[in-house]
Specification:
Blueprint: H1 13-19, H2 45-52, H3 67-80, E1 84-88, H4 91-100, E2 108-112, H5 117-126, E3 133-137, H6 142-148, E4 155-159, H7 171-180, E5 184-188, H8 193-196, E6 206-210, E7 224-228, H9 231-245, H10 251-283, E8 288-292, H11 302-308, E9 316-321, H12 324-334, E10 339-340, E11 350-352, H13 364-369, E12 376-380, H14 386-398
Helix pairs in contact: 1-3, 1-10, 3-10, 4-9, 10-14, 12-14
Bound molecules: pyridoxal-5'-phosphate.
The site of pyridoxal-5'-phosphate has 15 residues, from helix 4.
């Protein structure tokens, strides 16, 4: 295999997303090859011995590593500006391994209360069974983080902007408090995408992605990734956890996601511009209560969002429809272009009612505490024209 003759660190992000990480075989293919194999062979028994004692690193088994998956890992690491990337079968596999790789019984976790609902289940329901104590804090309240982090902790987990309420958590301030408490900070960067927010520059120790979302960007496959900057620590924590528990990404999915990275910048820029236009339009409609879009001055943390997110509000937005669940359902059912789906980050614009879908399984009190009311909808803005999307909402609200 031949490796590229440039150092990705010298390249712009646009170039890294296309050029970083490619390993060409002896056939000199243009696009990356899909290595759809589980195992690898050795010319001699001595070669196998050297692979396993570490003296001759190479691919040994696709649960551990695979050439197509490695190309995806190296490209995403270059895009993020991280030293290490581990790909996983899904975003949840990434979040789970990032946490479990570091944790022992009786450890303490502090997390923002507004989390993707499966993350909330892991922290709130699963880990306490094993003696781990978890304290949830209101993610936008720095005094609450400070109080919770007066006691030592092992892990701090947050996502920003939050799903689906679009709150902005101040990564730099929380990371400073977390490090004083001895905790490692995991940032779920899905809503900001690798393009708009650089958590490592703000003090994060680990960045996790659901690659299922904007990295694929076309609703085709599941994937996840854990990024960090310390190879030895990664090997000893989530690296060894992944190797032995097996949530590996398939080579086919890695190839699909490599193609996604190549167009990520163009897609995210387009979706952000359309999301901004839609948010402004929705603010003009009397049927709409609040528009939750970090790019608008009406967002309570607009200034922080602009500092933390490359001056743009992102490809996701939330809004409330006056009249509760019935009014929301009427509007959703009338949309002709926008599809109803709990997925996000697709070329197709997708709308969801979190209270009855993504967050239905969470207790009502917990939902209301993080702002998931019956009136709230979440919109993932795709690549259709802004004009057509605005017209679709106009007719759905007019009727
Ligand atoms: C979708 C999502 C996840 C989980 O990713 P999967 O690929 O569905 O497992 C985690 N966090 C956030 C913020 C997400 O949107």
């Amino acid at each position: 295999m031949t490796t590229p003759c440039f150092d990705p660190d010298d390249l712009d992000l646009s170039t890294r997303l296309i050029r970083a990480g490619q390993l060409r075989s002896q056939h000199m293919e243009t696009s990356e090859a899909i290595y759809m194999n589980s195992g690898f062979v050795y010319a001699t028994a001595e070669e196998a011995e050297a692979a396993f004692d570490g003296s001759k690193p190479r691919f040994v088994y696709s649960r551990v590593s695979n050439p197509t998956v490695k190309m995806f890992e190296d490209r995403l690491a270059a895009a993020e500006g991280a030293k290490v990337c581990h790909a996983t079968a899904s975003g949840m596999a990434a979040v789970y391994a990032a946490i479990m790789g570091q944790l022992k019984g009786n450890d303490r976790i502090v997390a923002a209360s507004a989390l993707f609902s499966s993350c909330r289940w892991i922290l709130g329901d699963l880990l306490p069974r094993f003696g781990v104590s978890v304290e949830f804090v209101e993610g936008t309240d720095l005094a609450a983080w400070e109080a919770a982090l007066k006691e030592p902790a092992t892990v701090v987990l947050l996502e920003t902007p939050t799903n689906p309420t679009m709150d902005i958590v101040d990564i730099a301030s929380v990371a400073a408090l977390a490090h004083k408490a001895g905790a490692k900070v995991i940032v779920d960067n899905v809503f900001a995408t690798p393009l708009l927010q650089k958590p490592f520059a703000l003090g994060a120790d680990i960045v996790v992605y659901s690659a299922t979302k904007h990295i694929d960007g076309q609703g085709r496959c599941l994937g996840g990734a854990i990024l960090c900057n310390d190879q030895t620590w990664a090997d000893e924590t989530h690296g060894i956890f992944l190797r032995h528990t097996g949530p590996a990404m398939s080579a086919f999915n890695a190839w699909t996601l490599l193609k996604g990275l190549e167009t990520l910048e163009l897609r995210v820029q387009r979706s952000c511009a359309t999301a901004h236009a839609l948010a402004e339009y929705l603010e003009t409609r009397s049927e709409i209560g609040r528009v939750l879009y970090p790019g608008l001055p009406s967002h309570p943390q607009h200034d922080l969002a602009m500092r933390q997110m490359s001056g743009c509000g992102g490809p996701m937005l939330g809004f409330t429809v006056n009249g509760g669940k019935d009014a929301v359902f009427r509007m959703m059912n009338r949309l002709r272009i926008v599809d109803i789906s709990n997925n996000l980050g697709d070329a197709r614009s997708l709308i969801a009612h979190p209270a009855t879908s993504t967050h239905q399984s969470r207790p009502e009190a917990e939902r209301l505490a993080i702002g998931i009311t019956a009136e709230l909808v979440r919109l993932s803005v795709g690549l259709e024209s802004a004009k057509d999307l605005i017209a679709d909402f106009a007719q759905a609200l007019d009727a």
